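Render this sequence as a predicted structure.
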Amino acid sequence: MPAPKGLPSFYSFNEPIATKPGALIKSERLTLPKIHGTVYRVMYVSTTVEGKPTPVTGLIAVPNGTPPAGGFPVVSWGHGTNGMADVCAPSFKPDGSETAGLANLLLDKGWVLTASDYQGEGTPGMLPYIAGDSAARNTIDIVRAARDLPGAHASANYVVWGHSEGGQTAMFTDKIGPAYAPELHMKGVVAGAPPSQFNFIYGFLLTSPFRYYLIMAAGGLNTAYGDSAAPLDQILTPKGVALIPKLDTSCDVNGTLGPLDVKSLTKGDPFKNPLWKKVLEENDPEHFSAKSPVPLLMIQGGNDEQIPVASTKLLADHLCGLHQVLQRWIYPGQSHAGVIGPSAGDMTHWIADRFAEGANPDPYKPTGLANIDQTTCS
């Protein structure tokens, strides 16, 4: 299979691929002077929502120094919304200052960083945007790939951290991780501004500057589940359906789609369509029906302009009702992405406590800002 248009030959692969989730297909070492460690671009096997093997690309960064007994602990990063096209793959251009800052935050702690591109970014097909199981499997399977990468010295102990789209990914890793990869040891999950309460968020997005997320979700879930389970023509008008191929052409989705008149593109509330209601609920953490044995930390900015703070409050209340070990930290005055900086030190402290087998819930109190709203349940 040739590399997608605009990407180098590394993103090509031979068929058939291996069928074992996490099998390493290939790797190449990158020269990234800003990164405090050794970085590899990798291609590995993951699993679609239908259970079929699929190639996925990503990055593995290994800290400098001698690995401890058992290997370096691993933090698997779930990236946020960055588009749906192949050229949006974070592994394609991994040397941005933001990428370096996030990587070094973890590498300096002596942790391996794994970062999946997710299925469809860098590999055939479109990104199954907001399909929780898909991204979660990709994020877990790259930890398996790191275990097979010579020179990574990766431990079986790992924590998942994701924000926004990656926050939903993190929620689903918490749900499926122990059963999906029982040979690994998931120690904790950090979900930043995780989307949930999709019915509520649908109404919020209708008049929001971020209403293009609605088209992305339609295209992504149709990619994941197919025309039988997620038929586009039942929720989008022909004008709306015609926009879907554009999602796979640029990372600037808002600019590519242009001004959106939702009423002319959609056929009304998708939650009134039985097929789409089922798919949307399957991918909404609000519909988790059992607690995970893995402790969960939710982080969000108090002035989040993309994910209503009330939605994560409702999600936390639901999970607390299931007796999930959970902490939720709301940083006052912070935006959707702006919360990452002030919360970084608190988050890494919480992750370090998980690797150190600390108490759950963690008695640590966040100090990144004053007056952080804290919820704890177990």
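Summary. The beta strands are 24-30, 37-47, 53-63, 72-78, 112-116, 154-163, 185-192, 296-301, 326-331, 373-377. The first strand starts at residue 24 and ends at 30.
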